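Annex B. Sample input.
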Amino acid sequence: MKHLISFILTVLILTGSLVVDPAVMDGAAPPEARVPAAASGTSASISVPAAKAKAKAPAGVAKVLPGARLDGPAAVTVLNTLPIKGKAPTTGYDRNKKFGNGWKDFNRNKCDERQDTLKRDMSKVKYKDARKCQLASGVLADSYTGTSIKWKVNSGSVDIDHVVALKNVWISGGQKLSQDQRLAVANDPLNLMASQASANRSKGDANAAEWLPTHKPFRCQYVATQVSVKKKYALSVTAAEKASMKRVLNSCPKQKAAKVAPIKVVAAKAPPAAPKNTAAPTKKQPTSVAAPKQVSPGAYCAKADKGARGIGKTNGKRYTCKTSSSDTRLRWR
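Annex B, continued. Sample output.
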């Protein structure tokens, strides 16, 4: 049967009764080729199934999942090691003064951490510069909302979120950190994630008891990242915050935290105290006061004594060396 069909097709092609589409010859086959009946001129035809073209792989890079690598111990185990404390007062909190103004180069690759985070968390990235440091565009598979964002520089559609908000760092132990340690937590890739701008802003400074991402499949990773940051920077959780974190992690007991080495808290240096004076206080010597000059009332006195006071020799009264309205000479009057 196979040979018979091949023979019929060959005859039809040779007699001009079958025209072969060049596109088929080039491999872009249409759904099927129709062979018209050779003899009768009727509309009867033979359908020959066309070979299926191979499906092409979709263009672009595979989807990138944002966030730091979490390949350490179980997140719920790490959570149970965090101290539980109430929120400290926000007194003294100033984001720029306490955590630095602008992005720093945490890993010293000559690109600031905003650019490094965009590069890590996006696919199909394009750059503005030859060094491949300043990003121009990219695609974010946003974990916070579960949406895809085609981002361009200055579009305002993507923020870099501090997974543990800096104000939350301040009220959960950050006041005891040194300035260098606060700059570190503000620029540590572990605490940074590219996210939809509106989602990041709706979060604000909230902790896990007050806000969680709307995209529920991401909550385990989100909470595990917060736990990792708090462990690394010796920060505490409130009782309500821990309870919320535990509820999330109970749904994913295999969720891991990051491998971190907790920092040693080095409190900010206080201004040096004034040295204590251990010497015994010196006693003030009484000032000796010269005894008043004894004078003879009405007697002349020298110019050097003008204005001086004296005591009368015989009567003990006080006299001053001066002139009068009727006498310009100095006398004890």
